[in-house]
Amino acid sequence: ETTTPAPFTVIPNRRPASDEERWLAMEDPVFGKVFTDHMARATWRDGEGWTQRRIVPLAPLPMHPGAAVLHYAQQAFEGLKAYRHEDDSIHLFRPERNAARLAASARRLALPELPAEDFLASLEELVTIDQQWVPGTPGASLYLRPLLIATEPSLLVQPSDEVDYLVTASPVGAYIATGDQGASIWVSKGYHRANAGGTGEAKTAGNYAASMLPQLEAKAHGCQQVLFLDAKEDRYVEELGGMNLMAVRADGTVLTPSLSGTILPGVTRDSILTLLKDSGRTVEERDIELAEILEGIEAGEIVELFACGTAAVVTAIGRLVSDDFDVTVGDGSPGPVGAEMVGALTDIQYGRAEDTHGWLHRV
Ligand code: COI
Q1: What GO molecular function annotations does the UniProt record carry, in alphabetical order (predicted)?
Q2: How far is the CA of 251 from the centre of ligand 1 (A)?
């Protein structure tokens, strides 16, 4: 069915956080643990389409214990950020990409697609009403978490006839604390993230749920993050628990796994590939064997590894570890290409550099 976009009705929170509560909450927020005063919502019913577009006070969701999302994880989500510029204007970064990816995830999860106009309107209106929650400190931003959930009370394994769309907002700083050493990464041998034909390229809860046990395994080995290999041959590097991977060769070429259907098409991944090409570098998107990376590091041909994502931006990788190897990339410290990319990307996001690609969407 077709739906016509309509503005979101605003029902303001009568008891918003006081200035002092907000300042305290925003001082050094743990990623995703602080939430603003409002959330966006819309409701879909089979036959009716999307209705009840609204911005409401943040509150727990009354939900039937039989709601399909609780049993079969029929859901999809997004992650993007709003940035405050020096002139106090607020900008979303490439939100159209997130709209398109949420629609693609929705198709894979047999959920209704939310029109891009509604997606953008929900973000603009939520950020506007909660604008005091958008941090102005360097490196901080307002992380937006759009969500589609199947709410029909039904234990039948079939698409829900009721779906809720929600957006929460969280002031955030760094996702992973970065130091003068790059992160140590555990290469998972026993576990895989996604298989061909599965949900690996959709942004859906199950992929992240499946990464938690391997992530614990990583922690147990003194590593901050896990890197997955392909499920079919156990040979090619895919992605980390919530970030895409990039490798820099000594000749300056940058390698990254191609979007084969099992990895998430990251917006930060795409933006960095574009910025790398802008800076005259050669980028290779292709299958990359773990052996190529390990041998390359040993031979000094791979000189830098980093991970990238919306939440984490760029995380330098200093070490790759598994049962049968432990290799340090260069001297283990963050490399220049990752640093250059954080600079180039955040300069655009925070309005310090010209937005030549038209990536910013002013709220
Ligand atoms: C993001 O980067 O926005 C994600 O959704 C990844 C998650 C690990 C926080």
Answers
A1: branched-chain-amino-acid transaminase activity
A2: 31
The answer to whether the complex's ipTM is over 0.85 is: yes
The residue among 226, 3, 251 whose CA lies nearest residue 114 is 3
Which pLDDT belongs to residue 1?
47
Per-residue pLDDT at 191 exceeds 80: yes
pLDDT of residue 180: 81
Distances (CA, A) of 191 to 64, 160, 187, 220: 33, 30, 9, 15
79 lines ligand 1 (CB under 6 A): yes
* Distance from the Cα of residue 103 to its chain's centroid: 15
Residue of 175, 193, 201, 239 to test ligand 1 pocket, by largest number of atoms within 8 Å of CB: 175
Phi then psi dihedrals of residue 84, to 5 deg? -95, 130
Instruction: State if residue 309 touches ligand 1 by the CB under 6 angstroms criterion.
Output: yes
Is a pLDDT exceeding 50 seen at residue 214?
Answer: yes
Q: What three-state secondary structure class fits 148?
A: strand
Query: ∠117-104-361 over CA atoms, to 5°?
Result: 40
- How far apart CA 330 and CA 28 sit, in angstroms, is 32
Of all atoms in ligand 1, which is nearest to the CA of residue 268? 2
pLDDT band at 173 (very low <50, low <70, confident <90, very high): confident
Specify the amino acid at residue 97. Answer: R
Instruction: Measure the CA–CA gap between 27 and 5, rounded to whole angstroms.
Output: 37
Does residue 310's CB lie within 6 angstroms of at least one atom of ligand 1?
A: yes
Question: Cα(127)–Cα(92) distance, rounded to whole angstroms?
Answer: 9
Q: Which residues contact 230 (CB under 8 A, 6 or more apart)?
A: 192, 236, 238, 260, 262
Tokens 């990895």, located at residue: 263
- The position carrying tokens 């979007």 is 259
Distance CA 36, CA 30 (A): 14
What are the backbone dihedrals phi and psi of residue 296, each rounded to the nearest 5 degrees, phi first? -60, -40
| pLDDT at position 5 | 53
In a 13 Å sphere around the CA of 152, the CA atoms on its Cβ side amount to: 16
How many angstroms separate the alpha carbon of residue 8 from the centre of ligand 1? 26
